[in-house]
Amino acid sequence: MGTDEQRREIVEAWNAMAPGWGRRADEIDEAAAQIQEWLIAALAPKPGDVVLDLAAGPGSAGFAAAPLVGESGRVISIDVSPAMVEVARSRARARGITNVDFAVTHADAIELEDDSVDGVVCRFGYMLMPDPAAAFAETRRVLRPGGRLALAVWRSAERNPWVSIAGRMLVGRGLVPPPEPGAPGMFALAGDEQLRTLLQDAGFAVERLEDVGARFEHRDVDDYVFRGRDTGGLFARAWDDASEEQRAEMTAELEERFAQFRTNDGYVLPGVALCVLAI
Question: Would 198 be classed as within a structural domain?
Answer without folding.
Answer: yes
